[in-house]
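About this split. The held-out portion is used to measure sequence recovery: a designer receives only the structure tokens and must propose an amino acid at every position. Recovery is the fraction of positions where the proposal matches the reference. Here is one held-out target exactly as it appears in the evaluation file.
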């Protein structure tokens, strides 16, 4: 099977177009299935969601960073790079090669839209354009060598999620599938699997998310598909409304980037935090990255907070209490270390308050392997300026959470009758 390689670019000049086409041709000649938006997107395509799907499916990526990509009104290369770095945070073996062209330098990335991407993680991969495209052939050879290596790459997140959906759709009567596919009429271009209808339908449902898949799910339910099966499908696609660029922040924190920081989410609902965590994990298993919600912090002292968090973690991680509390504490610390090393972090979700901010640093010191998310709610702007907090960007719009939760509740009620 050909390896899928995505090229992120902004090519508005004749020279940039020539460079892009030369790179594409060199990669195709070496057996890659190359995806370039100018080749595959048709007028009328939902191109943003289409590209997000490709970013989630690709096996490798090249990011061409030209001066135009550093401009505030041209955010798309930076957004694509953000999603690709999310992929790399989940899988260090995922190859992302930044190519600096037309005078862009590593230093110039630190002041623009790429400044928070921690590109130093792929600094050894960076290629600098020599002005004559002489770098293209060596890069294509290097990528071919990587693609043919003996290492086993982690499965792409979109592929993993689609496989989980396909497992549920295999339980559906085959006679119902064509109509469901018709109701989710979306093409996934050259990367649409051609093996079978179930696989295509799984990717279509994942691509469309809750709003676009509602009719198909209700159709399957009305004609006898078990509600439990369709609820499983709904749970897999529910986090799809969360922007993958925002998910990058959680993935970075999960793998230890900027370990002294807690994340600030500008909402007050724990449900939204759960959706962000599940989206960032890229896993169909909702417990892959478990989270512990803590009660509102008012006047408690840090010892009480730490003990409450300890008990919540023990319950969440299903640790059996030993006769000796010290043994249990050691087991908890060891398990949290193991999860962090395996890139399966545990999150703590808390609402913003003055009492929390007074003790947050001490809590992080007590539990250094945990990832903390603070729900800012109406106080998000005030909290965003505090040391030790980094707000998740792009921020949620005023109605984003309410709209997503309404969609979820509406579909769920149609599937369960509740």
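Reference sequence for scoring:
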């Amino acid at each position: 099977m050909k390896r899928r390689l995505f090229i992120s670019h902004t090519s508005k000049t004749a020279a940039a177009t020539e460079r892009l086409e030369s790179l594409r041709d060199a990669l195709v000649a070496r057996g890659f299935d190359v995806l370039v938006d100018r080749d595959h997107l048709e007028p009328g395509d939902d191109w943003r969601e289409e590209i997000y799907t490709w970013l989630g499916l690709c096996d490798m990526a090249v990011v061409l960073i030209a001066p135009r990509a550093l401009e505030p009104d041209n955010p798309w290369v930076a957004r694509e790079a953000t999603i690709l770095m999310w992929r790399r945070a989940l899988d260090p073996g995922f190859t992302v090669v930044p190519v600096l062209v037309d005078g862009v330098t590593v230093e110039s990335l630190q002041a623009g839209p790429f400044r928070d991407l921690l590109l130093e993680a792929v600094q050894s991969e960076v290629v600098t354009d020599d002005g004559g495209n002489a770098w293209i052939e060596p890069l294509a050879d290097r990528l071919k060598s990587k693609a043919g290596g003996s290492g086993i790459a982690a499965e792409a997140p979109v592929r993993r999620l689609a496989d989980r959906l396909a497992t549920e759709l295999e339980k559906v009567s085959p006679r119902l599938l064509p109509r469901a596919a018709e109701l989710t009429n979306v093409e996934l271009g050259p990367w649409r699997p051609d093996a079978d209808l179930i696989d295509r339908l799984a990717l279509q449902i994942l691509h469309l998310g809750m709003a676009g898949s509602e009719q198909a799910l209700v159709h399957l339910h009305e004609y006898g598909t078990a509600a439990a099966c369709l609820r499983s499908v709904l749970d897999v696609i529910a986090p799809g409304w969360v922007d993958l660029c925002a998910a990058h922040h959680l993935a970075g924190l999960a793998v230890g980037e900027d370990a002294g920081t807690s994340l600030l989410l500008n909402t007050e609902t724990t449900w939204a935090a759960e959706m962000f965590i599940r989206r960032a994990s890229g896993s169909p298993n909702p417990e892959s990255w478990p989270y512990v919600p803590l009660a509102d912090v008012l006047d408690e002292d840090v010892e009480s907070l730490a003990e409450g968090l300890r008990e919540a973690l023990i319950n969440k991680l299903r640790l059996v209490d030993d006769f000796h509390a010290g043994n249990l504490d050691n087991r908890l610390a060891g398990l949290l270390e193991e999860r962090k090393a395996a890139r399966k972090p545990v999150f703590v979700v808390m609402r913003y308050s003055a009492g929390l901010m007074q003790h947050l640093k001490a809590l992080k010191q007590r539990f250094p392997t945990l990832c903390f998310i603070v729900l800012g709610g109406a106080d998000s702007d005030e909290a965003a300026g505090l040391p030790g907090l980094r707000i998740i960007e792009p921020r949620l719009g005023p109605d984003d959470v309410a709209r997503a939760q309404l969609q979820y509740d509406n579909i769920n009620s149609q599937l369960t009758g509740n």
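Annotator remark: Residues 197-222 form the longest helix (26 residues).
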